[in-house]
Amino acid sequence: MLKTRFAPSPTGYIHIGNVRSAIYPYLIAKQANGKFILRIEDTDQSRYVEGATELIENTLKWLGLDWDEGPIVGGPDAPYFQSERKAIYHAWAKKLIALDRAYADPTPSDTIQEYRDQCSSQKIPYLYRNFRPENPPEWHEGIPLRFKADPKPRTWHDEVMGDMEAGPEVQDDIILIKADGLPTYNFAHIVDDATMGITHICRGVEYLSSTPNYLAIYEALSLNVPKLISLPHILGPTGGKKLGKRDGAKSVDEYRKDGILPEAMLNYLACLGWNDGTEEEIYTKADLVAKFSINRIQTSGARFDETKLLWQNGQWIRKIVDEQGVDALYSRTTDFWPESAQTCDDAYKKQVLSIIYDRLKTLADLRTMTDYFFTDPDIDVELITKNKFLKKNSEEELSALLQDAAAQLEDSDWDEDALQTTLNQLLSQTAKKPAELFSLIRISVSYAPFSPALHQTLAVLGKNTTLARLRQTITAIENH
Ligand code: GLU
């Protein structure tokens, strides 16, 4: 059976690239009716961060990437935390010792540093195998265990990068087990992938340079090498170098808190380094499972473009309303309303959402775009008098226009159609352009840089609020 895995280290920060390393193996497994495994690579105790595993689990669940085996759900190859698998690594380490392919290395670190310095002063590459201790002691916990390299030309196939080769100069006596008794990534992942029956390894291209060393370990242990799928780097917005925190790239959790929908995140990240050869930009998880193919993963780095993510999120917001109705979107907006909305009922908030959703890029836009639906805005006459459509009018003209508007609206029925008709009548009576008249009314009721269509905004605000705000503005202009 095809088995893939996502093997994150719980460092407390889930980078965009980490998640893409979960999405691709998930899609590959689901497409083949295989299994997707979650394994927590927590052997570097110095990097341990409280709560980091829960963050990983919650992020995967949020994205809909349910794992078939791993923490919480268990599975036949438990435990799925490397820190709980020490005995397994030690048993495999002993196999290598028995094969004379691993040795205990008591060399102190300052001596190792001297070897390094020696090589750099002689301008020769530092390879530990040239300093292998002559009579290593028997291995026991507390002493690092090293692999005994078998340097020779190696060739292999990477499903993305193609046919690869490497010479003996990159193969060395790498550490398998550290002095604290825990394995290095280099050793642990090989043992885990073998014991968990992983058939496809999907990981960042940064592991490519270590692959010759891994191949030597597979060979020494007579293990089959899983298919290797190296994912291209994710580059910063300028495309020059790897995406880093300094590029302003947020963690996945921050994007969630900022109101990015999981569907959009999944969609965006899946297409960061993969395409199906068409112009299509919107994919559901089911589409991705059906269409994903390893041979269309690109080899060059993929540029992270937050504007595109926001655009896709806006598309997803509309798609959810179009396909499932406004209630479906509303149920996801709980954390995103402004403070002022707290005491308002669901029905009213739903009305607001139904007229504004198609302008949202993120759900958090609700916080900044809807305040005036819930509380009277601060009046700022200059927003009117300095507005580019309105500044040519005198304050007397503006006040007179608003009085006309208030009088007409007072007699109007209060639904979208009736309001549209009243506003159109007002336009022809005053002989003003829509940009002028409607901006004046819009600003007077909202004092916001923008609002949904005017007739809809007024319909939701209600007659009393609309008229009261128009009158307050008239008074404010007169007292200006
Ligand atoms: N623990 C490694 C990381 O977080 C995983 C690499 C792999 O997928 O094998 O980068």
In a nutshell, what does this entry contain?
Helix content is 45%, strand content 9%.
Top keywords for this entry?
480 residues; mainly alpha; three-stranded antiparallel β-sheet; binds glutamic acid
Describe this structure in words.
With 480 residues, the chain is mainly α. The chain has helices spanning 16-31, 52-63, 86-98, 109-121, 185-195, 211-220, 252-257, 262-270, 285-291, 306-324, 326-330, 346-356, 365-369, 371-374, 381-385, 395-410, 416-430, 434-446, 454-461, 463-478; strands spanning 3-6, 35-38, 102-104, 145-147, 154-158, 162-166, 175-177, 200-204, 227-231, 234-235, 302-303. Helix 8 (262-270) crosses helix 10 and helix 17 packs across helix 19. The longest helix has 19 residues, at 306-324. The mean pLDDT is 96.
